[in-house]
Amino acid sequence: MWRFLRRLLTSEYLVLLLTALYVLCLWPFAPEIVSAQTALEVIMAMLPLLLLAIGQTFVLIVAGIDLSITSTMAFSSVVAAALMTGDGGYLAGNALAVPVALIAFLLIGLAVGCANGLCVVRLGMPSFMVTLVAQTFLSGAAIWFTSLHSTSVSIGDLPAAFSVIGRGGIAGIPYALLLCLVVAFAAHWLLGRTTLGRWLYAVGNNPRAATVSGVPTGRVIIIAFVLSGFCAALASIVYTSRLETGTPVLGQRVLLDVIGAAVIGGVSLFGGRGKISWVILGVLFLSVVDKGLQLLGLSQSIVFAVKGGVILLAAIIDALRSRILVRVAA
Amino acid sequence: MQTSSTRASLAVLRSAPALLFVAVVVLFAILAPRFLEVQNFANILTQSANVAIVAVGMTFVLLLAGVDLSVGAAMYVCAAVAGLYFKDLPAPAAMALMTAIGALFGAINALFIVGLGIAAFIVTLATLFVGRGLALHLSQTKMVFAGDPVLAFGQGGFLGISYAVWTMAIVLLLALWVQQWTPYGRYLYAIGADREGARKAGIPVRRVVFATYVLCGTLAGLGGFVSFSQVAAASSGFGLQKEFPVIAAAVLGGTSLFGGRGGVLGSVFGAILIQTVQNGLVLLNANPYLYPLVISAIIFIAVLLDSQRTRILARLTRRQIRIEPGVEARRSTAT
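Structure tokens for the assembled complex are given below, as produced in the milestone run.
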């Protein structure tokens, strides 16, 4: 019995099991949870979260943390929206408006990631503090920027060619899902099959050993932050086109979901451990929990509290798991 | 010669918060004449009291190289419970109640951090969620109003100084005494500088860490009380992201995020500095949307200074290692 429990706890797919268990427990109370409609809704809700979590994983693997992702989303959302909105945008009506806006999204994501990385590496500041400052700064900047361009709290009237990204698809497969699959596969390949992937793990496990072995530690950390910013920009594109408005409060609440999902999946906060497949399972788990609580008709505040409990539970399981692993190794 | 220049830059970096404060005061004094009035300084002190009190607890946590992200949530829970169920309590009793709830909140954090060995960052992140969710649920996301005795505390004063400032001063003096004159204070620095070494030296590390998170929660409760008495009503945004200015105040005051360095006096000073900037911006009629930009820029400078100081200190110790004779011996065994 004890051995079985131990096997279960150390299994890579524990989270998947927990998800199934959760659905089973909820089934009698909310039968709609087992339906194609719910599955589709969960998948659609999970996509931008997954993009963010993948970006976060790179940073977590090098033992950093990126708290600025949601503000990066918000800021890029309002700037790109201001470029292409039909309501007095810089490029309103121009055929190039959408491509330029898309480039603006990505450039902002890359620039924020780069700035974060440079502060961490060149200035030696803790990533927690750097990205916390970036978060406050960018969300403040996003609100300020919106106040310059719109009398309301968001920038609407975006071109139809842009909202297609979030709502349209090829042969019934949404573009967002395709984008997510591409990013997930690319990230999986990058972590598992390239030198950069090896370097990321090496830096996270032991930066000094990595430096001594000739890994360009600083550059690797900067790349991790840039990738995180890039993924945040992609998620921002998906969210903004879904909402059809640029808003400075975009995704304000998902930050903890993202970090929680990665940690639940088994990515270590201390660096060196993490896989894309784990992250997918973590995001799936959190999205299913969210959906289940909604189906039960619980209030938003209870959902909030339960999510915190779930994150704590995941951390406890993680602690138990690493304790067992240490004992097995010894 | 090189060491003397590093020592000089260290000295500059150490006094940087004070220099920053002087620069801010001079700048605002020139731009807004009203800034220098005595009443304005009294306002600044009164308004910074809640952040300063919470920052004292946070300083002790940071000295251990830990962090507590849940202080804002703790403040909200305390205010919600006090405002909903104990509205008619006299001010001292309400203060004691909220402080006790804060202590309980801190004890829960400590239980997970010390008992289960989970990273403080993730534990307090989770309790932030749970606490806010709980308080939102209790208050049905509606405004929670403070009772009249609590309100009287927020508006009243003694000897022309507001109760909030008195509370801040008492907390600061007690914390200074604990930090400088008790074994517990000494342990904080020892554990923050070298946890393993402290354990080997016989310091009850787990008990000290536990007590520190409880203390941080307690002071969050007290800070929540002071804030609650001043704003008179706790909306669903009460204490939201309060952890940010609190940690910033400590870092501005010279407390290191890496543990073992800093102190409560600096943190209170940092809280006052942040409030001074905010106050100055209000007097200048600056666009309110720009406040977070200015504040985050100042915090950025503070963190940058801290990391530079840490870096210089690390370089100084590395030099000493190189002179050690052990290095030669190790090199010969390797070949």
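The two ends of chain B are 35 Å apart (CA to CA). Confidence is low (pLDDT under 50) at residues 326-335 of chain B. Further analysis is deferred to the final report.
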